[in-house]
């Protein structure tokens, strides 16, 4: 998410500098917060302030699109939301880097490819007009009329080039701003995380990288996009990391030695790693050194939010259980009710018995409950929880029981013993891992 920003550079230009530094010295990287969750955004803003760094936030094509996505936000509304919150905290617009993740036909993949691609172009156009400058072109998914549900690499590159052309034309109509930076690739994990459990994913081969670049460069050239090609800064590859319902596949740098050694000379890009959530701090540091210099994180942040909310409900019950003057919140029940009534976001991810599925709905690494926090019933119960704890300084003994990290921070004078501050701090425990791995302070 974060980079230190010299006064004379916009966030996009400095992103290019960080990439050059990583290629030259194997040091420095960036992490992108892939979330539209308000608490995650607020924690990310605070982390950016703490690090004196750029705020780098990305939205997926499913979260935010011209039809509203599952957040109900268009790209312009999302951009306004991020900038308004950032400016309220003292972060200027030139320190905000907005990115579009998995921009392509994915939300409309059940339609014919021509229709899905047209809607994807509309999305890319809207993102550029809204100020998005890091564009991940992802046309890897099959549409309704693709033979046998498969898309070959040439077709993927062809469709991605059409999306890039749309972005370039949209930017050409703007009066100012830095030109779009692109991320490409065909071995792209599906948005939302792994669906089925299994073996660790296969690491991308060097031959595949070389072929991908050749095919994409050819398709860009056919459309007169040589200038855009020079601004391809990232290639999505599979470094062998992933997470599912109850498993995390850890990074093994011995499996990517060839990828690290054979980083393409042209364009001057680095690798972008998706699904890095739940990796160890040491693994993330190694990934950055191995030129996986763009790290995506999303579900781990809302997972941390859920941990904080559940922990606070446990404290609430210890404080008020049996009280006739306090109505206890029912966050867990409200969340479970919404997920049970509307299973479309989790039913293909969670398997086993009903009791196993119930555990997964709340505690899974896949964190599919992140799609339900905005529901009115859930929001009402969170409001009740925060209201019950609003005038209450959280007892240190209870903090020690349910929030040991936050307990130490409170004892050290770093953190206030309030519910809202505890939630933000808990999310930041994840953000700090990424900031350290990327060495955003340049130490």
Fold and architecture overview:
The chain has 443 residues and is of the alpha/beta class. The protein is built from 16 helices and 10 strands. The chain folds into 2 domains: 11-297, Aldolase class I (TIM Barrel, Alpha-Beta Barrel), CATH 3.20.20; 302-426, putative tagatose 6-phosphate kinase domain like (GI Alpha 1, domain 2-like, Orthogonal Bundle). The strands form 2 sheets. The chain has an 8-stranded parallel barrel with strand order 1-2-3-4-5-6-9-10, surrounded by 7 helices. Strands 7-8 form a two-stranded antiparallel ribbon. Helix 5 (153-172) crosses helix 6. The longest helix has 22 residues, at 299-320. The protein starts with 10 loop residues before the first helix and ends in a 5-residue tail after the last helix. The mean pLDDT is 94.
Please tag this protein with its features.
eight-stranded parallel beta barrel; GI Alpha 1, domain 2-like; alpha/beta; 16 helices; about 450 residues; two-stranded antiparallel sheet; TIM Barrel
